[in-house]
């Protein structure tokens, strides 16, 4: 929002200079993004009239002018401007004047004395270029200071408003806030109903009352649409960033800036029948004022007549009903459109307007008729004409629900003590209606404050009016207590430290991935799609962290990093019926040689078992590995990871087709685990050191080569014999002496009795029990 300081000070004039006003606005939440003068500094430049202009005796392109600057005697000035002529009024810099970049001195030009300089807009810093002298109107008084004539001591404020402060998208709204902040009197323009001089009206029907609760308009006949817009209005518009177009359009734009109410003027002679406010019918077309031909959809609200759409409601008018220099009769519209109906429609058509920007955020529905009367007043003053009665269609407007403000809550949030008298005075300055209640107030916000909905909104209003500078910065104080840290619970940083100690480096990647990645790489046919993705290749939520790891691997390989160890801790996202579920995951990737290049060991590539060792470290050796299939992993080198029989992750080598797809010279090994189960640690417990010696027995069995070794270990451990301390595999053999399709597995069994020394008979009985289990469940045979 850009505006002229002098315009604002006509409505409220606090005892603050420009910098002070800028600071006050910023500290009140209306951030001043820029504060700059409307023109560069210069002095001693006045309105002058050229009395005569004679050709320079020694130069073809110069003229010797007699110039009246309001002094006793006219000045002689040599001028080279092509439009210098007798009777022209233009700026003149007197001797001693300081212009942007240079100073005017008494001089001789080709032997002729020159006592000043006639100026162009460029020389005064008012334009980037010019073709000659800045021509002034006949109403410019000779001798008047140019800065005074053009109000060049003005300052331009640019506010960076937050979306909730739509009430400050107008000079009136900003003036209200400045008056509340500073206590300066507020003097807004008087808006009285204009005299009605004819009874003609246009019929108005609103078929969508929820979308347009209030619609008002009037016919103004006999206007002079070609009338010149007053200089003061042009100046205010331009200093607000709006170009002057024509008197009627300028008036609607001016009221938009002054009142915050968008308006539109239709050429009444181009309308067919009455005004209809309705949703567009699918397929209807409209040529907009910006020259864009749009095909309307059935969720777009339009202003129409019997022939079809005339304007996009709250966004832009149509070319067919636009006013022009020959317009004689206008229908002036002022309405309130529900923000939800307008929001996003202009953006869908790839443009934005001042009108849609305001309606999307909320326009004061209590100001609709006032703005219409203000625009009518200006039309009659500038363009003449006769105004008809106001036609209004009114449906239930948004209710302003009272909001409760508790004193105790306010003082607790702000950390200061404000009594009810102070708070009541601040609410009065904001023009909020309120009533005292037990322990606080019940406040009803005005129609122009859409942002006041909850108690915290009122607390913010009190804080900014009281002044953030007046809220002391107190150091927090509280009793500090050591919180219990259960030994059975690990922190995520423990997982990070464990992998970092093994040479892995942590990455952080987007939670968004390409849909093709989820579909092909992970076999997820229904990923969670994003309604507004930040990029076309980041359109769905990830169900695995491997996408970021693979992208980081490729990034590193492209930079000649041949050994890569990466991990990430983050979230994966899943759709379950009508709800969503987020799961914390830790994923890792290993690529390249198993160890950094060195002389002491033979070089080899990292394999499944190297990464399995890292997973065992993270899980504390509590997990099991079951052969399984995964679309991203090698069919013969993939395992699902189980903890207490429940799947918690995957480990495996990258599938050859993906290795080829990503053009990787070698295969990568990946793993992914749910984080939560890894954070539960086994608490060490004391076991008495045995006084009697342990007994070790070995058992070698033949089983089918497809039999998982883990299944045999699980079977033997399921016996839960109290004498068994440990069972472990120490040898696997296939070859001479072992039948085809079989493998030999050798296990050690460590036994101990804490009460006595084990006898051979007792040890033999345990071994016989274990062998019997292996025979029954796995068809094992004792190897001699």
Automatic annotation (TrEMBL):
Which biological processes are named by the entry's GO terms? phenylalanyl-tRNA aminoacylation
- CDD domains named among the record's database cross-references: PheRS_beta_core (cd00769), tRNA_bind_bactPheRS (cd02796)
Tell me the SMART domains matching this sequence. B3_4, B5, FDX-ACB
Q: Where is the TRNA-binding domain?
A: 39-147
Copy out the cofactor comment: Binds 2 magnesium ions per tetramer.
The residues that the entry says bind Mg(2+) are 451, 457, 460-461
Which Enzyme Commission number(s) are listed?
A: 6.1.1.20
Q: Where is the B5 domain?
A: 398-473
Enumerate the InterPro entries for this protein.
aa-tRNA-synth_II/BPL/LPL, B3/B4_tRNA-bd, DNA-bd_dom_put_sf, Fdx_antiC-bd, Fdx_antiC-bd_sf, NA-bd_OB-fold, Phe-tRNA-ligase_IIc_bsu, Phe-tRNA-ligase_IIc_bsu_bact
Cited HAMAP family: Phe_tRNA_synth_beta1
Q: Which family does it belong to?
A: Belongs to the phenylalanyl-tRNA synthetase beta subunit family. Type 1 subfamily.
Please give the name of this protein: Phenylalanine--tRNA ligase beta subunit
């Amino acid at each position: 929002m850009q505006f002229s300081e002098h315009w604002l000070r006509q409505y409220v004039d606090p005892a603050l200079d420009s910098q002070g006003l800028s600071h006050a606005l910023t500290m009140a939440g209306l951030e001043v993004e820029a504060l700059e003068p409307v023109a560069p500094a210069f002095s001693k430049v006045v309105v002058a009239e050229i009395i005569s202009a004679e050709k320079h005796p020694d130069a073809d392109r110069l003229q010797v002018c007699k110039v009246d600057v309001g002094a006793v005697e006219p000045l002689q000035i040599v001028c080279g401007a092509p439009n210098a002529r007798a009777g022209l009024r233009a700026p003149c810099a007197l001797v001693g004047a300081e212009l942007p970049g240079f100073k005017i001195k008494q001089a001789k030009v080709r032997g002729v004395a020159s006592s000043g300089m006639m100026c162009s807009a460029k020389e005064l810093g008012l334009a980037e270029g010019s073709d000659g002298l800045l021509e002034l109107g006949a109403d410019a008084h000779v001798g008047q200071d140019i800065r005074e004539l053009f109000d060049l001591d003005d300052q331009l404020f640019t506010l960076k408003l937050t979306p909730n402060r739509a009430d400050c998208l107008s000079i009136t709204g900003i003036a209200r806030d400045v008056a509340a902040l500073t206590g300066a009197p507020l003097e807004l323009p008087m808006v009285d109903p204009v005299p009605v001089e004819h009874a003609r009206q246009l019929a108005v029907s609103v078929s969508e009352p929820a979308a347009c609760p209030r619609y008002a308009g009037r016919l103004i006949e006999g206007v002079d649409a070609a009338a010149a817009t007053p200089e003061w209005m042009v100046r205010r518009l331009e200093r607000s960033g709006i170009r002057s177009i024509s008197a009627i359009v300028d008036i609607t734009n001016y009221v938009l800036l002054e009142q915050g109410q968008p308006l539109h003027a239709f050429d009444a002679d181009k309308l067919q029948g009455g005004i209809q406010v309705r949703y567009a019918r699918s397929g209807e077309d409209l040529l907009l004022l910006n020259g864009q031909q749009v095909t309307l959809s059935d969720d777009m609200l339009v202003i129409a007549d019997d022939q079809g759409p005339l304007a996009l409601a709250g966004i832009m008018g149509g070319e067919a009903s636009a006013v022009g220099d020959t317009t004689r009769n206008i229908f002036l519209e002022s309405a309130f459109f529900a923000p939800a109906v307008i929001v996003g429609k202009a953006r869908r058509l790839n443009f934005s307007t001042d009108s849609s920007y305001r309606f999307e955020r909320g326009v004061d529905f209590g100001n609709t008729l006032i703005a219409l009367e203000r625009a009518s007043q200006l039309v009659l003053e500038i363009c003449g004409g006769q105004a008809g009665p106001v036609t209004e269609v009114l449906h239930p407007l948004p209710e302003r629900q009272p909001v409760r403000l508790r004193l105790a809550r306010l003082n607790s949030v702000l950390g200061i003590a404000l009594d009810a008298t102070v708070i009541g005075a601040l609410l009065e300055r904001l023009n909020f209606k309120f009533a005292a209640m037990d322990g606080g107030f019940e406040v009803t916000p005005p129609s122009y404050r859409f942002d006041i909905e909850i108690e915290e909104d009122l607390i913010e209003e009190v804080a900014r009016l009281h002044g953030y500078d007046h809220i002391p910065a107190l150091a927090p104080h509280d009793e500090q207590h050591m919180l219990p840290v259960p030994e059975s619970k690990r922190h995520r940083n423990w997982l990070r430290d464990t992998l970092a100690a093994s040479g892995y480096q942590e990455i952080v990647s987007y939670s968004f991935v390409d849909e093709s990645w989820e579909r092909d790489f992970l076999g997820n046919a229904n990923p969670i799609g994003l309604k507004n993705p930040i990029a076309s290749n980041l359109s769905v939520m990830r169900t695995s962290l491997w996408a970021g790891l693979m992208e980081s691997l490729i990034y590193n390989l492209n930079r000649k990093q041949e050994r890569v160890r990466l991990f990430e801790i983050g979230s994966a996202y899943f759709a379950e019926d009508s709800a969503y579920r987020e799961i914390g995951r830790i994923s890792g990737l290993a690529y390249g040689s198993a160890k950094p290049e060195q002389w002491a060991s033979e070089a080899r590539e990292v394999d499944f078992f190297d990464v399995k060792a890292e997973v065992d470290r993270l899980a504390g050796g509590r997990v099991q590995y079951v052969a399984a299939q995964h679309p991203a992993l090698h069919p013969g080198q993939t395992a699902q990871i189980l903890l207490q029989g429940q799947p918690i992750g995957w480990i495996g080598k990258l599938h050859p087709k993906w290795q080829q797809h990503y053009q990787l010279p070698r295969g990568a090994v990946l793993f992914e685990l749910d984080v939560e189960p890894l954070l539960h640690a086994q608490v060490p417990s004391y076991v008495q050191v045995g006084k009697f010696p342990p007994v070790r027995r070995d058992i070698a069995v033949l089983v089918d080569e497809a039999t998982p070794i883990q299944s045999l270990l699980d079977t033997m451990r399921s016996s839960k014999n109290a004498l068994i301390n440990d069972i472990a595999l120490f040898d696997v053999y296939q070859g001479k002496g072992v039948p085809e399709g079989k493998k030999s597995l050798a296990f050690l069994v460590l036994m101990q009795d804490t009460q006595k020394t084990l006898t051979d008979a007792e040890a033999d009985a345990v071994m016989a029990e274990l062998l019997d289990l292996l025979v029954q469940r796995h068809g094992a045979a004792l190897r001699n």
